[in-house]
Specification:
By secondary structure, the protein is α+β, with helices and mostly antiparallel strands. It contains two helices and five strands; from the N terminus they run ββββαβα.
């Protein structure tokens, strides 16, 4: 889950469907994370999320081939 920090540290409300309390919200949506980054919010992603993005998904072999 990514931590989203609003430019206004005192913001309480909802932005792009994400609820904020004292300027902090959370989401795991890649689309929203990208939107917040491009709109001046600070995004802190956990290490496990960053690793998932870097590693290509392994394809499982199809049985019978």
């Amino acid at each position: 889950m990514a931590k989203i920090i609003a430019p206004n540290k005192q913001y309480n409300g909802v932005s792009a469907t994400v609820p904020f309390v004292n300027g902090v919200g959370q989401t795991d949506s890649p689309h929203l994370i990208s939107w917040f980054k491009s709109n001046g919010y600070t995004v802190e992603e956990s290490e496990s999320e960053q690793e998932t993005k870097k590693k290509p998904k392994e394809k499982k072999p199809i049985e019978g081939e």
